[in-house]
């Protein structure tokens, strides 16, 4: 029987148990500490990464899977499930070359690649991970690829997200801001709130003084974003600090009725750009 197989990359930050439950194929990006290479979430766990990151003198670098790696994944799926379709969802093309690698892999397969659809999520972390999970749920219900893509696009448009960054250090090391700004921000206890725009690019929403005020401001922003909506689904990404995610969920529950709740790690690849203490919050209307 023909079926639809869901593929994604490791920056979707889907909890491993959830990916296994829904049969999602996750292709890892690579993280480099100097000459040491680690497959995201496989050779290095988030716990190991966030313990090591503050001690590293150099910012780790990252690289996307090659087109050949994706081609091999697609070929393996098509051999196991002949005649099936593949929906392959990836981190925003504005943040990584991962989407382009997957597109090239599809083109390399020529006729075999006709049943493969590569999707630019225009998002990052569980900001598209939740869409991948929903796609897998719909695939398990034998929905057509077209119906799955339509449902996922509707979710993408209704999703709201904010990242609370605890320190400006990694934005500075990554060249996002100047060193003087990072030092001043640290002295003033500035906590940047970031989001991702319609083009899939990260931008600064506000800079708030103090973490407690920043969390309160994030909730205010969500209330403004989805006025008139009471019941929501929510996912909180944390940097191997689940207590911080639980705390935010508790705060959020005072303002919304929370249906589906997901706690997940911001994985090493995404974490290399934002650092320890980050909170990434994603909400979308409940059905």
From TrEMBL:
Annotated organism of origin: Paenibacillus etheri
A Pfam family recorded for this sequence: DegV
PANTHER family: DEGV DOMAIN-CONTAINING PROTEIN DR_1986-RELATED (PTHR33434), FATTY ACID-BINDING PROTEIN TM_1468 (PTHR33434:SF2)
InterPro entries assigned to the protein according to its UniProt record, in alphabetical order: DegV, DegV_C, DegV_domain_contain
NCBIfam families, per the entry: DegV (TIGR00762)
Key words of the record: Lipid-binding
UniProt superkingdom: Bacteria
Any one GO molecular-function label of the UniProt entry: lipid binding
Name by which UniProt lists this protein: EDD domain protein
């Amino acid at each position: 029987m023909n079926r639809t197989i869901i593929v994604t990359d490791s920056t979707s930050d889907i909890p491993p148990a959830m990916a296994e439950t829904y049969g999602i194929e996750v292709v890892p990006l690579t993280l480099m500490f100097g000459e040491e290479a680690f497959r995201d979430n496989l050779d290095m766990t988030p716990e190991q990464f966030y313990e090591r990151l503050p001690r590293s003198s150099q910012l780790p670098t990252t690289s996307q899977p090659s087109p050949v790696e994706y081609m091999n994944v697609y070929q393996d799926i098509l051999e196991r499930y002949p005649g099936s379709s593949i929906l392959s969802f990836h981190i925003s093309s504005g943040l990584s070359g991962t989407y382009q690698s997957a597109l090239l892999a599809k083109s390399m397969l020529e006729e075999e690649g006709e049943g493969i659809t590569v999707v630019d999520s225009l998002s990052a972390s569980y900001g598209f991970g939740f869409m991948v999970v929903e796609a897998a749920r719909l695939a398990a219900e034998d929905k057509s690829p077209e119906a799955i893509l339509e449902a996922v696009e509707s979710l993408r448009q209704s999703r709201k997200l904010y990242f609370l960054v605890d320190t400006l250090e990694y934005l500075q090391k990554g060249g996002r801001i100047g060193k003087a700004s990072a030092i001043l921000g640290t002295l003033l206890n500035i906590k940047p709130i970031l989001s991702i725009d319609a083009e899939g690019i990260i931008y600064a929403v506000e800079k708030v003084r103090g973490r407690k005020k920043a969390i309160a401001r994030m909730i205010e922003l969500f209330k403004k974003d989805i006025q008139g909506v009471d019941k929501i689904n929510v996912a909180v990404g944390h940097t191997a600090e689940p207590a911080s995610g639980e705390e935010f969920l508790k705060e959020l529950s005072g303002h919304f009725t929370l249906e589906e709740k997901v706690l997940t790690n911001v994985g090493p690849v995404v974490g290399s750009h934002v650092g320890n203490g980050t909170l990434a919050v994603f909400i979308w209307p409940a059905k």
